[in-house]
Amino acid sequence: MLLRKLTLAVSLALSANVAFANCGDISGTVSIVGNEFPAIQTVAKGAAACASDAVEVISNLTADHQKINLAGMQGDPAEYTTAIIANSSIIALMNDDVIRPLDDLIAEHGADIPKSNLITIDGKVMAVAFMANSQHLAYRKDVLAEIGVEPPTTYEELLAAAKMIREKGIMENPVGGAYKSGWNLAQEFVNMYIGHGGEFYNAGTAEVAINNPQGVATLEMMKALTEYMNPDFLTHDSNATNAEFEAGNTALMNMWGSRIGVLMDDEGAEEVVYSNVAVGGPMTVGGGTTPATTLWWDGWTVAKNTSDENAKATFMAMKNGTSPGILNDDTMGEAVWMIEGYSPAPVNAGVFASIKAGAKPYPMLPYHGLLHTALGDNLSDYLQGKESAEQALADTEAAYTTAAKEKGFLN
Amino acid sequence: MTVQAQKRSHLLNLVLIAVLVIWMILAAFPFLWTLWGSFKVEGDFFSKANWANALTGPLTIRETGGSFTGDGYHGAWIKEAFGLAALNTMIVCVFVVTISLTFGTLGGYALSRSTYRYAFWFLIIALIFRAMPPITLVSGYLPVFFNWNLWGYLPTAIVVLVAINQPFTLWMLHSFFKNIPKDLDESAMVDGCNRFQAFRHVIVPVMWPGVITTGLFSFLLAYNDFAVTAMILSKENQTMVPKISSFLGTTQTKGNVMFAVAAVVSATAPLFVMVLFFQRQIVSGLTAGAVKG
Amino acid sequence: MKHKTFFWFVLPSSLAMLLFIFFPIVSVLIQSVHVDTEQVIKEVTNCGPFGCETITAVDQEATQALKRENPIGRFAGFTTYLDRRHLAIDEVRAAWSTSNGIGSFIKQLVNLPFYKAMSFTLAFTFIVTPLVIIFGFIIAVAVNSAAKWMRGPLIFFSLLPMLVTPLIGALILFWMVDARGIVGNALQYLAGDPTLSVKASTPLTWIMLMVYGVWHSAPFAFIVYYAGLQSVNQDTLESAMIDGASRWEQIRYVIIPHLLPLTTFIALMQLMDNFRVFEPIVSFSAEAHATSLSWAIYNDLGGETRQLSSAAATSVLTILGICILLLPVLVRTWRDFTRK
Questions:
Q1: Chain B residues touching C233 at Cβ < 8 A
Q2: Which residues pair with A361 in a beta bridge?
Q3: Is B254's CB within 8 Å of A35's CB?
């Protein structure tokens, strides 16, 4: 669906030239909180174009946005009239009921927002997405050519390729991965577990169920991959993983689509590295058909505890901030925009491949954040060989259950 | 100190010099390395290929055409307006130090002179207050600050930093004041001063070594604080450390680490001047010759 | 000092601490004996850019109704303190009865998050604190004996480990100890093992964190001692010299007693700060090898779903831990106090 939309968008890109700053008749305050990477800066700038004598637009973009957005929207009136969030972080705002349904505003003023960008929860539109992201394969063309192997489409093929690279003495640790203990490691488990067709919970409940054959297979695959990684893998976040790749130490890795651009530019690496970077789709694992990756979106919301006047102003400003008008030569490459007029570059091929391959979105469950934290804390012991896979999974389940009881999801 | 110098043997001199040299290398080497590296590109400074790249800088030569580049400095100060953050830090530091020391000298002096038991318990409770991990404190402030519309402003951060730092300041100044003999202010009181006058005219002139040292710590706390400032200052009021951390990037996006390195190096230069200046103050407090124990 | 005078002198400090530390501590105490109200869950259909799916979500109406009844949550007593993430009473008992020796009991014990954190926290506290005091003292004596014109720069460079913000300082040191970094390479050369990696080994990571801890905090002890040395009584020193005391005897009988109150102060602050060790663990990405109580709080508050009660309980346990730790020093202070 999205793919069709985007292909359509590409063809429209040349003809369409939408007027900028079409904010309608609004007044009040628009206050934005969000992360600070360039794409979000662009959106905030687009929203600020609606500022006038009657409308004040303030933005607070910081990497710590998740720590302050909930508190900032709980007050009455809320400090922030909109929070820019992703599919994992909208949960915290939903759980505490601080964002308002947008259906009436969309009916009145939002007919031109693409339907596929509306995030509908229980029949109510709670957010509007504007960009997508996903993890997928990135590899070195020259290295794979040297061993005469096609880019892997499964993790098993990746392991075989890694083995050949090591045996031929091209690289000692050819596989890269963001396996840093904590959020990153948990993310890789979520990817791989989904790839194995695992279900995280007993259907319709908050009871966790990962200590099963899929869970063990997931951990075993992760361990097999770490055999081909730098021994410091438990300290490598995506920054460090990319740095390893740029230094020419790794040839195969599962990486965020949003981080491929800097690998392909001519900064930070030797020519032999940056000119040979290529992206593949997401990989499957264990004979499954669901790719072992998750899809992500970033979107905006409107606060509940704010006047209808401010809510309308916020809606119009954010709509303008994510309208085709914000796209130009500079902003085009900042993200995989889900905006009409966006023309994808080769660096974004991986994210599109993920969508096309039917990858699942990151689970948007009220209690999944707790499981993510529990996974991040408990899996490293297994990967260091300190305990069995079953024990690591049992520890994770116990940690999750304790947390879920405290938060009232389990009794 | 001249007295000791006369007695010092050659062997002792050698040992002392050796200690100083080793310590200087340990303390300064990482900084000097950073200073050198701040004129390179990221691929060299954090080279995962070979550590020697940070010295020779092959990528710097290829990417910028010269062995040294000012890109990090240009990026931090011009593109990212680091000067504004520096100004905010200066405001925060000046106020935190002044207020902390005013509150702290009054309280610390009283605690060092009171012979009642409650003074001891006051100190103990202050100590227990300090045991509270700051991140828990800050996350408790957030809802209140947002509700009362106090969030995001420099004065809020200043007051919070002063309060969090109070137990430390009290303890430290209390220890210093205890070293100032009681006879000094008590004789002044016999001469007809009240307690505050005695404090003002007799203690204040001799307290500077302790106060300067304590002030240095208050300053460093405000200057290096991340936990408080990152959470309760809005973007336009941001101080240097949260600004530097914003250069580092996130899971899904790459940052400008060299901006951060350049910012750190340039933020250290004013500290050098400051330490040189106050070092003299500490010694001048001594040469005033008033401290007798 | 009169009660009234004392009151006015300590009033500003007390007010600041009351508002910004005491009240938050009370709210943390209350938080730690409550847990969230029950969250009513229902199945819903969600749609987004990647299609529709049926999943569970919080039933806001029902949950908010429960929340209005109990705005601060359900009273839970000490449940949170005793659960698996904190004191883990049930798990410890089970481990005790199932383990067949002290070794396997300890292994099961440090698999529990609280005891894993405690093992590193205590090791860190008891190794780093004395080293900081000793090194700080030695450096202070050395700097104090240097020529006057050199002291300014010497103090500045000695303070550098403290001055450079840990955010970047640790990042650079972290790179240096990398297997390909300058220190990492030197270690490989010294150990004669080209595959040695500090970051991949638990014992080496512990040592690295402790070395960093000493390096980072030694300037603190140094500057306090240095300031203290400035006020050493010259008359006493001179008369000791005239009495024929050697330099060592001067240090032993004049300088050390003079610096004793400062040592108590440094010990108190360092024990406390080291018990709350946190920054190096995050900066050095050492979570897989070493955790601490402060790190556990950070982890509880930093997830997508913040676990306030758990963080509150850990905070209270931290305060209790520090009280126990400081008891010997406090008893000493009490004796000093009553003596005067």
A1: 291-293
A2: A295
A3: no
Q: Which residues pair with C45 in a beta bridge?
A: C54
Common-topology check for domains A2-132+296-356 and A134-294+359-406: yes
Given an 8 Å threshold on Cβ–Cβ distance, is C47 in contact with A117?
A: no
Percentage of chain B beyond pLDDT 70 is 92
**Whole-number Å distance between alpha carbons of C6 and C3:** 5
How many whole angstroms separate alpha carbon A257 and alpha carbon A247? 19
CA distance A119 to C57: 14
Is there a contact between C86 and C318 (Cβ–Cβ < 8 Å)?
no
ipTM score for this prediction: 0.88
Work out the minimum CA distance from B275 to partner chain C, whole angstroms.
6
d(CA C291, CA C296): 7
pLDDT band with cut points at 50, 70 and 90 for residue A4: low
Six-digit token pair at A80? 């922030």
Distance CA A3, CA C286 (A): 41
CATH architecture entry for A134-294+359-406: 3-Layer(aba) Sandwich (3.40)
pLDDT at B110: 92
- CB contact under 8 Å between C6 and B119, yes or no, is yes
- Which CATH architecture fits A2-132+296-356? 3-Layer(aba) Sandwich (3.40)
CA angle A322, A323, A325 (to 5 degrees): 120
d(CA A72, CA A66): 10
Please determine, for residue B49, whether its predicted confidence score (pLDDT) is greater than 80.
no
Residue pair A353/A17 in contact (Cβ under 8 Å)? The answer is: no
Distances (CA, A) of A190 to A119, A200, A362, B187: 22, 9, 8, 74
pLDDT, one tens digit per residue, over A149-193 is 999 999 999 999 999 999 999 999 999 999 999 999 999 999 999
Among candidate residues A130, A94, A108, A133, the one with its CA nearest the CA of residue A26: A108
For residue C157, give the nearest of B28, B48, B264 by CB distance: B28
pLDDT at A212: 95
Domain-by-domain residue ranges, chain C?
A: 32-77, 84-111, 114-339
Neighbour count for residue C229 (Cβ, 10 Å): 21
Chain A residues whose beta carbon lies within 8 Å of the beta carbon of residue C37: 408
Nearest Cα to Cα of residue A251 among A184, A166, A352: A166
CA-to-CA distance for C63 and C38, rounded, in angstroms?
Answer: 7
Q: Tell me B78's DSSP state.
A: I
Task: Count CB neighbours of A18 within 10 A.
Answer: 13
Asked whether the beta carbons of B254 and A242 are under 8 A apart, the reply is: yes
- How large is the angle between the packed helices C256-275 and C308-339, nearest 10 degrees? 170
Q: Which two tokens stand for residue A303?
A: 């606060």
Integer Cα distance of C252 and A297 in angstroms: 67
What angle in degrees, to the nearest 10, is found between the helix axes of C202-230 and B154-179?
Answer: 60
- Number of helices and strands in chain A (H, E): 18, 11
CA dist B180 and B198 (Å) reads 13
Q: Shortest CA distance to C287 belongs to which of A384, A144, A308?
A: A384
**For B106, how many CA atoms within 13 A lie in the half-sphere containing its CB?**
18
Q: Which CATH superfamily is domain C114-339 in?
A: MetI-like (1.10.3720.10)
Residue A259 touches partner B, C-beta closer than 8 Å:
yes
